[in-house]
């Protein structure tokens, strides 16, 4: 952070160096960045169960990381992005293959995995 090759006067406190200028193109980009993640709305009309959803999504991702090994096709992932109305998405979908890490018997009897499967079934509806 204090590299003089990167920053002018690196030892001085200047938080404005991280702010973008207010030119029209950059201002619009800043607004897009602010709206890039609003899955549950906000304010008075926001989803009342958003904290529950965040907890379930976090638990689901944790269980999927714990129970499976993940492999991707190819050696490199293309991380290009594209803008859709209010979201930022990957320009090219990520395709991966889950491989079970624990035995099938343990998976079938795992209450957490049964919850994950129920959530996936609900999302597919």
From TrEMBL:
Keywords: Heme, Iron, Membrane, Metal-binding, Monooxygenase, Oxidoreductase, Transmembrane, Transmembrane helix. Heme binds at residue 47. It comes from the Eukaryota. GO terms for molecular function: heme binding; iron ion binding; oxidoreductase activity, acting on paired donors, with incorporation or reduction of molecular oxygen, NAD(P)H as one donor, and incorporation of one atom of oxygen. GO terms for cellular component: membrane. It is found in: Membrane. Pfam families: p450. Its cofactor is heme. SUPFAM superfamilies: Cytochrome P450. Belongs to the cytochrome P450 family. This is Uncharacterized protein.
